[in-house]
Design goal:
This protein has about 625 residues and is an all-alpha fold. The protein has helices spanning about 5-10, 10-25, 45-65, 70-80, 100-110, 120-135, 140-150, 155-165, 190-195, 205-220, 225-245, 255-270, 275-285, 300-315, 320, 325-335, 365-380, 390-405, 430-445, 450-470, 490-500, 510-525, 545-560, 565-580, 605-620; strands at about 40, 295, 595, 600. It folds into two domains: about 5-40 and about 300-620, Glycosyltransferase; about 40-295, Alpha/alpha barrel (Glycosyltransferase). The strands form two sheets. A two-stranded antiparallel ribbon has the order 1-2. Strands 3-4 form a two-stranded antiparallel sheet. The radius of gyration is 25 Å and the shape is globular.
Length: about 625
């Protein structure tokens, strides 16, 4: 940033805020070398876990005659009742407006308990659903849930299955009337056949596909005799597959909702003794919080570590913020998280990173570039700037090639696997694509010549994808982040900021279309600043620490390349807003901007700290340099 811009800022108070944010982030660094945050407690996760545990307990009582323990179920219902919104429903976090899906799940969980202390809560949720749906008849509830998700059955069927298993849809075969059957027999098709045909399996949904398909077949077999026979024959084989892909922790994707759906479905078709159920129940009991709630996922430690290192490095002062011993620990920790063989769950090849160090993680297209950037930041280099660790270069080459293999035909990067772009797991995303561009650029000179050539071609295709997917107003829309107050529930501020941070990539210097797109994106980001000086998820959306930090970081990066009075003014207002919003670097209230599978909202305790550090650090940097 130029001296003129620094001179216009009230620098000392801003630096005090930055120093406070840095201290907060440093304090979250764990001794083993990673950052550990905390995901929001989720009413949806808590309701599903409560139902799974209670249905399992009742099955054990019927089987063994023992009374069983229901403490976790009762504590979960107490938490649910205590966090009901005033309108009678529930949102995905305690800071979220009510939505139909979460409210239906809480309604189903409350239906399992006759406790009088929850009577008022039950009356309020009945009134909410009555207003939203018209009545509480099973067919009406089923139509409402299906309509909310359209053609995507990966979450509508689990919700309806839970309603049937908890008795909300009545008893017997009729309770399953409005629930679409799931072709769980597809899971028995050998993966190599699907690969040869170019048909990617929705791997993250496979546990639910198997378990919910089986319970639906158990209670309401298809009338087609051939399909009924095929599904009967596939039961044992698909249960074997389910057992094989369950991680050591017992939690599929480390997610309480997915694991709960599997547990309750198997219990619901007489498989309460199955090892998958035992391990799933153990996972739920191991991950419940002291207040009786569950988050949607156990942790995001790999992702947070990547974000934290980039934030601390954004102003070129990483060595000042992290002493050598800490840098070595972080480097070793991130290196050890790379998958060295084919993933047993998704069949992803070696070379990628997941969002967590836990066994339920899956390598993906956002955490892999985050890890590669960490390795590049922390690598020991010689006097010529070359990485001296050959093993580190080998790992980086494997990660870069892994991302290369993920690239879709449209030039963009998806999350888990290449595909047709019809579902979130295989759809290209601007933010992921920009992240991959940065990671490739960071390591390009350290890679073998052949891989360099291939990555150069891939980068050209990636930039072309970003140019094509830029909105008419100049913004880009991300995939896994949104904003509850934005009319479309999207977060173009996040998406645009992430693409602009890739604007320094050297291979795009002479790409005129790319440079023009970056100029339009910069102008859009400047224009959508709120009157209070901060940014929300889009124009007119309330400002947040996360989104303002992202916008300030991205604009400061653009100002380094193309200085502008408009950009400098926006940065100054954003820095002032961050100072005030964080109370000079002492308070960091989180905002639900994260999106999980099926558009489940979450906040993460460290997001506002990380994004505030990144924005303030880059804005207040005194050096003109290519930061990344």
């Amino acid at each position: 940033m130029t001296a003129g811009l620094i001179g216009k800022m009230r620098e000392n108070p801003a630096r005090e805020a930055l120093n406070g944010a840095v201290r907060e982030l440093q304090s979250a660094l764990q001794p083993e070398g990673c950052w550990a945050g905390e995901l929001a407690s989720s009413a949806l996760a808590t309701a599903t876990a409560a139902c799974a545990l209670e249905l399992h307990r009742r099955a054990v009582v019927r089987r063994d005659g023992a009374p069983g323990r229901g403490e976790s179920f009762r504590a979960a219902l107490d938490w649910i009742a205590a966090h009901q919104n005033q309108d009678g429903g529930w949102g995905d976090t305690v800071d979220s407006p009510s939505n139909l899906s979460t409210t239906v799940l809480c309604w189903a969980a409350l239906g399992l308990s006759p406790s009088p202390r929850h009577a008022d809560c039950r009356r309020q949720v009945d009134a909410y659903l009555g207003r939203e749906l018209g009545d509480l008849k099973p067919a009406t509830v089923a139509r409402g849930v299906v309509a909310a998700y359209g053609d995507d059955k990966t979450f509508s069927v689990p919700i309806l299955t839970l309603c049937a298993l908890t008795g909300r849809f009545g008893e017997g075969r009729d309770a399953w009337e409005g629930i679409p059957p799931i072709p769980f027999e597809l899971a028995a098709i050998p993966h190599r056949w699907l690969r040869r045909l170019g048909l990617p399996m929705v791997s993250y949904a496979m546990p639910a596909l198997i378990a919910m398909g089986q319970v639906g077949h158990f209670h309401r077999p298809t009338v087609n005799p051939i399909t009924r026979i095929l599904r009967g024959l596939a039961r044992r084989r698909t249960l074997e597959i389910l057992t094989a892909i369950q991680p050591r922790s017992g939690g599929f994707l480390e997610a309480a909702p997915l694991t709960s759906f599997v547990v309750m479905s198997l219990v619901g078709c007489g498989q309460d003794r199955h090892p998958v159920v035992d391990r799933g129940v153990r996972f739920l009991l191991d991950t419940v919080r002291e207040d009786g709630s569950w988050p949607i996922d156990t942790n995001l430690n790999v992702w947070l570590t990547g974000l934290a290192v980039e934030a601390l490095a954004s102003g070129g002062r990483l060595s000042r913020h992290l002493p050598p011993a800490s840098r070595r620990r972080i480097l070793a920790w991130v290196k050890a998280r790379q998958y060295q063989g084919e993933h047993p769950y998704t069949r992803a090849p070696a070379g990628g990173w997941a969002w967590t160090e836990l066994s339920g993680g899956v390598p993906d297209g956002d955490d892999t570039p985050a890890a590669l950037l960490v390795l590049g930041r922390l690598a020991e280099r010689d006097s010529h700037g070359r990485v001296v660790d050959a093993d580190l270069c080998r790992r980086a080459a494997a990660g870069a090639a892994w991302l290369l293999g993920l690239q879709n035909r449209d030039g963009g990067l998806p999350t888990f696997c290449r595909g047709w772009g019809r579902m979130p797991f295989d759809r290209s995303s601007p933010d992921l694509t920009a992240h991959a561009l940065r990671a490739w650029d960071k390591w390009l000179e350290e890679l073998p010549a052949d891989l360099q050539r291939r990555l150069g071609h891939a980068a050209d295709r990636a930039r072309s994808y970003l140019v094509r997917t830029q909105r008419g107003d100049g913004a880009w829309t991300p995939l896994w982040f949104g904003n509850q107050a934005e009319p479309s529930l999207e977060n173009p501020v996040y998406g645009t900021a992430k693409v602009l941070l890739a604007g320094h990539v050297r291979s795009g210097d002479r790409d005129e279309l790319w440079q023009a797109a970056l100029r339009r994106g910069t102008a859009w980001l400047v224009s959508c600043r709120n009157g209070d000086g901060g940014w929300g998820g889009g124009p007119g959306v309330s400002s947040s620490i996360e989104e303002t930090g992202l916008a300030v970081e991205a604009l400061a990066a653009r100002h380094e390349i193309r200085p502008s009075v408009d950009i400098s003014g926006a940065i100054q207002h954003g820095v002032d807003w961050l100072r005030q919003a964080t109370r000079e670097g002492t308070s960091f209230p989180p905002t639900p901007i994260g999106l999980y599978f099926a558009r489940l909202w979450y906040w993460e305790r460290l997001y506002p700290v990380i994004f505030a550090v990144a924005g303030l650090e880059r804005a207040l940097s005194r050096k003109k340099q290519d930061i990344d």
